[in-house]
Design goal:
Blueprint: H1 2-28, H2 40-65, H3 92-107, H4 111-150
């Protein structure tokens, strides 16, 4: 139960800030009614938003159930998570957030959210390269090296068969 509470709190703070709070601040400061003209683009924009949310929820579950930790760097998984969506790509949680942001950019017709998504993804890539991957390599050693060698960082591929 405590792990569930920690996972929900970490999700509210980390992806919640990136995918909900910041886009809301961007849209609310634009001075226009964000969804006054609902059309086909807005309806279609819900698809990536739902996909992104689904990816985030699944990854948070995997971190808790398989890794026995959360997505917060201060409370990371105790075990290397290579199941679920992590079988296909090493960073599905970040991809879920990016997909969600792209959907929000379309939903609100906001180039500012689109620029934010691009800058955020660039910063995430640097974070992954220079912080996350070295930490995972030190924490999980050879098992992470095997996983890293078999699964792409950003592009989904064939499922990982290791453990």
């Amino acid at each position: 139960m405590l792990l569930l509470l920690r996972s929900v709190l970490a999700a509210a703070v980390l992806p919640g800030t990136v995918t909900l709070l910041i886009p809301w601040l961007i849209v609310s400061r634009s001075g226009t009614a964000p969804l006054r003209d609902w059309g086909a683009v807005q309806a279609l924009a819900l698809v990536p938003i739902v996909i992104g949310v689904s990816i985030l929820v699944r990854c948070i579950y995997e971190f808790a159930a398989r890794g026995r930790g959360t997505l917060a760097p201060v409370d990371p998984p105790k075990h290397l998570v290579v199941s679920g969506l992590y079988r296909y790509v090493r960073n599905p949680m970040y991809l879920g957030a990016l997909i969600m942001l792209l959907g929000e950019a379309a939903l609100f017709r906001s180039t500012t959210i689109l620029v934010f998504a691009a800058v955020w993804f660039l910063l995430v890539n640097l974070f992954v390269l220079f912080y996350e991957e070295p930490i995972l390599r030190r924490r999980f050693g050879e098992s992470y090296d095997r996983y890293r060698g078999a699964v792409h960082r950003w592009l989904p591929g064939k499922p990982y068969e290791g453990s």
